[in-house]
Design brief:
about 140 residues; mainly alpha; 7 helices; about 0% strand; elongated; DoxX family protein; transmembrane helix
Length: about 140
């Protein structure tokens, strides 16, 4: 039952908080999806040179980044399995900031901002205006 509430929280938030969480999910999710879509479009040119920080190969690393940035961010936008979707996103942004940009704010400012926002959303949950919120409210009874 605890796992159910973690995945599908029933909201006890104010309307203002719920709207802010909705806007954060949609805005940052769509922005990140755009980056994932760019990677998908340039897969053939990026596949051989994409960073491979976990040793699975350049193309597999690129596929994992596309999954995190495109597929998981679209799940985030709609609030579907939000906390699960945020795990690959947070991992991808951690790799981008700490590996690709060497933990430098001047080089990896965007990855750092994304990382902080997505950690925040992981901790707060999707909010009332999400599919997860709807499921939590309606399946709880």
């Amino acid at each position: 039952m605890k796992a159910f509430h973690l995945l599908f929280p029933s909201s006890g938030q104010s309307s203002k908080t719920a709207i802010l969480l909705f806007l954060a999910r949609v805005i940052f999710g769509l922005l990140l999806a755009f980056h994932g879509f760019q990677k998908l479009q340039n897969f053939n040119t990026m596949g051989e040179t994409f960073p491979d920080p976990i040793g699975v190969g350049h193309e597999i690393s690129l596929v994992l980044a596309i999954f995190g940035e495109l597929v998981c961010s679209l799940a985030l936008v709609f609030g579907v399995l939000t906390r699960l979707a945020l795990i690959p996103i947070i991992f991808t942004m951690s790799v981008a900031f700490f590996y690709a940009h060497h933990g430098s704010i001047t080089e990896g400012e965007l990855a750092f901002v994304y990382l902080i926002v997505f950690i925040f959303l992981f901790l707060t949950g999707p909010g009332r205006y999400s599919i997860d919120g709807w499921l939590g409210k309606n399946l709880e009874h």
